[in-house]
Amino acid sequence: MPTFAAADGTRLAYHVRGEGEPLVVLPGGPMRASVYLGDLGGLTAHRRLILLDLRGTGDSAVPADPASYRCDRLVDDVEMLRAHMGLDHMDVLAHSAGAALATLYAAAHPHRVRRLALITGNSSALGLHATPEDRLAAARLRAGEPWFAEAFPALEAWLTGSGEFDVVFMPFFHGRWDAAARAHVAATEQQSNFEAGDRCFAEGAFTPDVTRAALRALAAPVLVYAGELDGGPSPALAGRVADAFPHAEVVVQPGAGHYPWLDDPEWFVRRTVGFLDA
């Protein structure tokens, strides 16, 4: 397992899977080990994935300063990985909360990004957020599912602040609630650093106006990828995210939730590789 030293001396790990041109992959969570990404539905057949374990997650070390978990401070870790890999510029794929980090990185180092794929990405860095209404509207699309009657009230209670997070509503994050999705959920707790997750989006992490201005210098094409059944981001929100970049396109995967490579791997890989290799 290869490692490198962050600017503050924290040892960070990354995992290399697949063959071909390198693709730097930033996990979500926030602050979740990269193992949950697997081979991204078979993307390893087309690209050599460089999956970073963010500090304090997976095989990366816990930093001496917990404040360094804040998303804007993680940008330097990504830049150190690029330099360690000897890449003059790089393709970047980021999932969920990792998209906030990738957006900040692209704003800080626009000339280092060749192509950027934001997969069902968090858009907090742009001052955009999925609302409870967005998430509930997406959830209602699943009213015909056998688990809906139990799961929807729990989701609504959580989103409105009258209930706690409950695994009973995890089916809403998946386009297909099958064995693969259940296994994926079962592994979540072991993959996450909850203290780091609480600090990642702490006050001061984002300055949307500054980020939007800096992104005007980004020449790289951007793919904003949404799942048809996902509420965060919804396809409509993905369109607003794309408007923040000079050269962006939106793709909506039919029948997909927050983990589109699980819902239809072939569709996901075909569309993602088409963008990366264009």
Could you please describe the fold and organization of this structure?
There is one protein chain. The protein is an alpha/beta fold. The chain has a single domain, classed as Alpha/Beta hydrolase fold, catalytic domain (Rossmann fold). It contains eleven helices and eight strands. The protein has an eight-stranded mixed sheet, sandwiched between helices. Helix 9 links the parallel strand 7 (222-227) and strand 8. The longest helix has 15 residues, at 71-85. The chain starts with a strand and ends with a helix.
Biggest beta-sheet profile? 8 strands, mixed
Helix % is 25-40%
Q: What's the architecture in CATH terms?
A: 3-Layer(aba) Sandwich
Strand order of the largest sheet: 1-2-4-3-5-6-7-8
Which regions are unreliable across 5 or more consecutive residues at pLDDT < 50? none
- Structural class based on helices, strands and sheet pairing: alpha/beta
Number of strands: 8
CATH evolutionary superfamily: Alpha/Beta hydrolase fold, catalytic domain
Query: With helices defined by DSSP (H or I, 4 residues minimum), what is the helix count?
Result: 11
Radius of gyration: 18 Å
How many angstroms separate the termini?
31 Å
Count structural domains.
1
Average predicted local confidence, pLDDT: 97
Order of helices and strands: EEEEHEHEHHHHHHEHEHH
- Estimate what percentage of residues fall within beta strands: 15-25%
CA-based shape: globular
**CATH topology descriptor:** Rossmann fold
